[in-house]
Amino acid sequence: MLRVLKRLKEHFLSKKGTDKITVTIDANTDPLMAKLDKIKNAVENIKADTTPEVSPTLTAYGLCDAKLPDIEGVGLPDHAGFSEPFIAELDKALNDYHHKQARYRRGKI
């Protein structure tokens, strides 16, 4: 059987544009399927046994990615800490920007 597959492989590798070959094997595939199941189970067990990566930042605080603390909620203060003059300055800069954009569009169109 290996000789047949080798010949088919050589034959089809030399031909361009061959997409697919279908081979029907008339044999007892139970031993092969049993080995494939063993391999599949071994891979699944490896995945289950791996430990998650630990973040250095969380480790510094004595935490790990697998067990994060429960956070009930986050509250924001009524006043976020920006002064009124600062907010007014940002608002003026935004308005100036919009006016310049409008003048630019009128000049280009």
SSE topology:
Elements: H1 2-14, H2 30-49, H3 56-60, H4 84-108
Provide mean pLDDT, rounded.
70
Helix percent band: 55-70%
- One letter per element, helices H and strands E, the order comes to HHHH
Strand portion? under 5%
Number of strands: 0
Summarize the structure.
This protein is mainly α. Helices cover 58% and strands 0% of the residues.
Structural notes for this entry:
The model has no long low-confidence stretch (mean pLDDT 70). It is elongated, with a radius of gyration of 34 Å. It is mainly α and 109 residues long. It is built from 4 helices and no strands.
Features:
109 residues, mainly alpha, 4 helices, elongated
